[in-house]
Amino acid sequence: MEEMSMLETVAKDNEWLQSHFEKVQKEHPNKFVAVSQGRVIAAGDAAEDVIKKAEEQGIHSATTLIEFIPEKGLILIL
What we know:
Elements lengths: L1 H18 L1 H7 L3 E5 L4 E5 L2 H10 L8 E5 L9
Antiparallel strand pairs: 1-2, 1-3
């Protein structure tokens, strides 16, 4: 049950990020961001740094959405 709860939490934060993407993109272009409970809790150049900042706030990385936010107009090919 705990795993489902964690997945639901990350899914809700993903929905929040998608609906606030332009604002987050303006504030954190070309940065990794950590989103928890509908807000950006950390940003930085490397995912590892963002995870560390989140964990320093007592937020477990398993329940934290980490995403790279490209600058407007940048196209990423994966």
